[in-house]
Amino acid sequence: MAAEATHTDTRTAVAGGARLLLSGVGMEFPQPHTGQTLTALEGIDLEVTPGEFIAIVGPSGCGKTTLLRLIAGMTAPTAGTIAVGDSTAASARTGFVFQQASLYPWRTVLRNVAFGMELRTRTPNRHERSRRAVRRQAQDLIRLVGLEGFEDYYPHQISGGMQQRANLARALAIAPELLLMDEPFSALDAQTREELQIELQRIAVQTNTTTVFVTHDIGEAVYLADRVVILTGRPGQVRKVLSCPTPRPRPLAYQVSDEFMALRNAAWELVHSN
After folding, report:
1. Distances (CA, A) of 251 to 50, 202, 256
2. Which of 87, 139, 148, 267 could covalently link to 92 via disulfide, CB atoms 3.0 to 4.6 Å apart?
3. Residue 231 belongs to what H/E stretch?
4. Which of 190, 143, 188 is nearest to 7 (CA)?
């Protein structure tokens, strides 16, 4: 049976966030069978300040995940530029949390998190001092995400929510300038999802990591983000950016506040309008 963790607060050394700047970003995909191109994104201009948390919502197929992949440097845009601090998207230090847990099944929670540090240094930890330092830092991150006591568990021995906590710890292990999250809670049950929304707010504030969060859930976007970026249907363009004034982290009670209701309704109308 998969176990569930309780949270133990801690402080850890995670680098603060970088400024993200998108200027005129567009993306086209060739369609070999027709000889035409599909325009997925067009004219995206967006600035995200260091430590800011933004959420991206929009109609299905509007290019949300494509935009996230461009920001991650996985693919180069066909138009415009993306800068993360003083770096290009491809060379920036970026953590990515996917919709499905992507832990290595043959590694324990501790060794999965430590793998993020191996990526950061790009060298194996052959020396005992290095191994001890990596283990200590990995344990700090495990405490940060509320998984203390589960360091030696394998992914199949823990719940989906705990796997996503471990994924988040591994993403933070590279000390990212930018944290990207692609619907990370969509496969979880409602209670676990709510718990992780609370935890993510705490961690994002504590680490001051610049975060871009893609979701289909408009309420989730308003609850978590400093600003909600609303895209049009394809080709995806920025229709509107809504500011969420209440400081993070926000209590659950925020979700029944007048501010939350007004922002969620405004965002819903923008997403579903032609």
Report:
1. 23, 11, 10
2. 87
3. strand 227-231
4. 143
Cα of 53 vs its chain's centroid, Å:
9
Measure the CA–CA gap between 105 and 122, rounded to whole angstroms: 21
Helix/strand/coil percentages in the chain, nearest 5: 35, 25, 40
What are the φ and ψ backbone dihedral angles of 253, each rounded to 5 degrees?
A: -60, -20
202-225 residues labelled b (16+ CB within 10 A) or e (exposed) = bbbeebebbbbbbbebbbbbbbbb
CA 257 to chain centre: 25
Q: Give CA 210 to chain center in angstroms.
A: 9
Q: Which two tokens stand for residue 244?
A: 């969420």
Q: Are 84 and 248 in contact (CB under 8 A)?
A: no
| Alpha helical stretches, state H, the chain | 64-72, 109-121, 128-144, 160-172, 190-207, 218-224, 258-272
Return per-residue pLDDT of the chain as tens, 274 residues.
Answer: 344 444 433 334 455 688 999 999 999 999 888 878 999 999 999 999 999 999 999 999 899 999 999 999 999 999 999 999 888 888 888 999 988 778 999 999 999 999 877 766 555 555 555 777 888 889 999 999 999 999 999 999 999 999 999 999 999 988 898 999 999 998 888 998 899 999 999 999 999 999 999 999 999 999 999 999 999 999 999 999 999 999 999 999 999 999 999 999 999 999 998 6
- Which of these, 46, 53, 90, 55, lies nearest to 69 by C-alpha position? 90
